[in-house]
Write a structure and sequence with these properties.
It comes from Deinococcus aerius. The radius of gyration is 34 Å and the shape is elongated. The chain has a six-stranded mixed beta sheet with strand order 12-14-13-15-16-17, sandwiched between helices. The chain has a five-stranded antiparallel beta sheet with strand order 1-2-3-4-5. It has a four-stranded antiparallel beta sheet with strand order 6-9-10-11, with helices on one face. A hairpin with a 5-residue loop joins strand 4 and strand 5. Helices cover 52% and strands 11% of the residues. The protein has 27 helices and 17 strands. The chain has five domains: 76 residues, Zinc finger, CHC2-typedomain (DNA Primase, Chain A, Alpha-Beta Complex); 117 residues, DNA primase, catalytic core, N-terminal domain (DNA primase DNAg catalytic core, N-terminal domain), CATH 3.90.980.10; 118 residues, Dna Topoisomerase Vi A Subunit, Chain: A, domain 2, CATH 3.40.1360.10; 73 residues, no CATH class; 76 residues. It is α+β, with helices and mostly antiparallel strands and 581 residues long.
């Protein structure tokens, strides 16, 4: 059968292919995100290979991967394309048997729709065309209506049990219909295969909704209701609207919002993300009937995989109604308003971290960075969510993008994110910033003043005064006493609080905290001094460069040598700093 199939035709249904040399075609890989094509098809040999993600194989393995099929189902699908009849081997169990049994059940449910169920659907605002398009039906009252019909058509109880259409009493062995007195919603996978059903009661009895149980074909953690219809717009960049109920999906489609889908009583999963990425989805809107606190909880608990693969927002209809009821009341504008706004997942995570920890202190900034690190550390250029989070974090914390990337890439710095590191990451850093950071550490332990060589030319006047007054001080109180009632007092108090932001430190652990802070302060003093030394040498280099431009040729050589010596010294200081990090 492989000889009757052109792999380029099969792959071309999923990938836009262009010539890439004799007998070869290329395109963007359907198995991972990429901007430049690394996926190739060898038409003569009948194989594909991706130089990016290393996926490769023949036409059968391609269909298996791209459509998420077993080999048997891929074989049958391709056999239909090639016009070849494939017979199942003895004892082989095929999910196609389940599709056929479900199709039989659907015809039974559709036949029983006229009556109370049809009246209910029309009261909910559905047109006859929509009811037909979504193949809605009704499972009548009674214990064995479907079972009797199946027996009359030669289907066995075992086939219906395997499809989840019957329930067996383990004590008596009696079997009966699973779905009774319910409006029936056929559930198809992204390929349009009928894998199961959802049923809704017409009254207030419980459970309100009942789904097909897990079968070989029905895996609710991998299914999205309505995806077979919504997937058509994904390749062109359309947003996928994730709602909570079958009626929401159907009503939205009827009103032109054809990107609507619903999960089957589960949260969105990594399996959903893999499937949607493969189908070309790039943006998800979670439209739920909840208040803002509920939407925030939804985003907070969202699988990180989804955030890494898609732009995600959470929103609700302004009227507070669910989408189906809002549209029934004629509030199409409210739906459009909800889809245009909402809480952005990346912005929400950043704002939540800032609200939890604050940006007023270095400790707060440190905690914000550590809270956001798991989401920011994916450096894949195609992960737009991580890139947006890093950009927003830099903006809010006032740090340089390149410095943030360096910190993310350094495990040592992530383990011990010091005040010095934060000062160095600042977009507005200066020698005075370092001086204040140094003063903050000396207020933690004034005896560290002895580590300074006394030659530093302080640029900040307040720092210069405090350094002079701190000679011989044994505690922060000794230093504060000198500046009681003076302008420097408020600066010192602020720096003391920043240096010892204990947060929720308990009494039992306070002693250990004090020991760690003191040890950290000693290391920070060394680090800051190195930074000040580097800044001073850089300033001297800048001065010499300006002098070179106006100096006679004979003097330029000497100035250039001085610049080289200073640059070597700067690199040596940097290496020493990295070695101690």
């Amino acid at each position: 059968m492989r000889a009757r199939l052109n792999i380029a035709d099969v792959v071309g249904e999923h990938v836009r292919l262009t010539p890439a040399g004799k007998g070869r075609l290329k395109g963007l890989c359907p198995f991972h995100k990429e901007k430049s094509p690394s996926f190739q098809v060898d038409v003569e040999q009948g194989y594909f290979y991706c130089f990016g993600c290393k996926a490769g194989g023949d036409v059968f393995s391609f269909v298996q991967r791209v459509e998420n099929l077993s080999f048997g189902d891929a074989l049958r699908q391709l056999a239909e394309k090639a016009g070849v009849q494939v017979e199942a081997k003895y004892g082989e169990r095929s999910s196609r048997d389940l599709y056929d049994v479900n199709a039989f059940a659907l015809s039974y449910f559709r036949e029983n729709l006229p009556g109370p169920a049809l009246d209910y659907l029309r009261r909910r605002g559905l047109t006859d065309a929509t009811i037909e398009n979504f193949e809605l039906g009704y499972a009548p009252e009674g214990w064995d209506g479907l079972l009797k019909r199946a027996r009359s058509r030669g289907l066995s109880e075992r086939q219906l049990l395997e499809a989840g259409l019957l329930i067996e009493n383990p004590e008596s062995g009696r079997v009966y219909d699973r779905f009774r007195a319910r409006v029936m919603f056929p559930i198809r996978d992204h390929l349009g295969r009928l894998v199961g059903f959802g049923g809704r009661v017409l009254d207030d009895s419980k459970p309100k909704y009942l789904n097909t149980p897990e079968t070989d074909a029905f895996k609710k953690g991998e299914l999205l209701y309505g995806l077979d219809k919504a997937r058509a717009g994904l390749s062109s960049g359309a947003e996928l609207i994730v709602v909570e109920g079958y009626m929401d999906v159907i009503t939205l489609h009827q009103h032109g919002f054809t990107g609507a889908v619903a999960s089957l009583g589960t949260a969105l999963t990594a399996e959903h993300a893999t499937l949607l990425e493969r189908l070309g989805a790039s943006s998800l809107v979670l439209m739920f009937d909840r208040d803002e606190a509920g939407l925030k909880a939804t985003l907070s608990g969202l699988d990180q995989v989804l955030g890494a693969k898609f732009r995600v927002r959470a929103t609700s209809v302004p009227s507070g109604k669910d989408p189906a009821d809002a549209l029934l009341a004629g509030d199409d504008a409210g739906i459009r308003q909800a889809l245009a706004g909402g809480l952005d997942e990346v912005k929400y995570r950043v704002q939540a971290a800032v609200e939890a920890h604050g940006l007023e202190t270095t400790e707060g900034k440190r905690r914000v960075l550590m809270a956001l690190l798991p989401r920011m550390q994916n450096l894949d250029p195609l992960d737009e969510g991580a890139e947006r989070m890093r950009s927003l974090t830099c903006e809010l914390l006032g740090i340089r993008p390149e410095a943030l990337l360096e910190w993310i890439g350094s495990k040592a710095k992530r383990r011990s994110l010091t005040d010095t590191h934060l000062a160095g990451m600042s977009a507005h850093r200066s020698e005075e910033d370092r001086e204040l950071a140094l003063l903050r550490q000396l207020l933690v332990d004034p005896t560290l003043l002895a580590k300074l060589d006394g030659t530093t030319p302080w640029r900040n006047e307040a720092v210069r005064k405090v350094m002079l007054a701190a000679q011989g001080a044994r505690s922060p109180d000794d230093i504060l006493e000198v500046f009681r009632g003076q302008p420097e007092e408020q600066l010192l108090i602020r720096l003391m609080f920043e240096g010892r932001d204990t947060g929720a430190i308990s009494r039992d652990t306070n002693q250990l905290y004090e020991q760690r802070v003191t040890a950290y302060a000693a290391a920070a003093v060394d680090d800051i001094q190195v930074g000040l030394s580097i800044d001073s040498m850089r300033a001297e280099v800048d001065l010499l460069k300006r002098q070179v431009a106006g100096a006679p040729p004979a003097e330029q050589i000497g100035l250039l040598r001085q610049i080289q010596d200073l640059q070597r010294a700067i690199e040596a200081e940097k290496r020493a700093r990295r070695g101690s990090a």
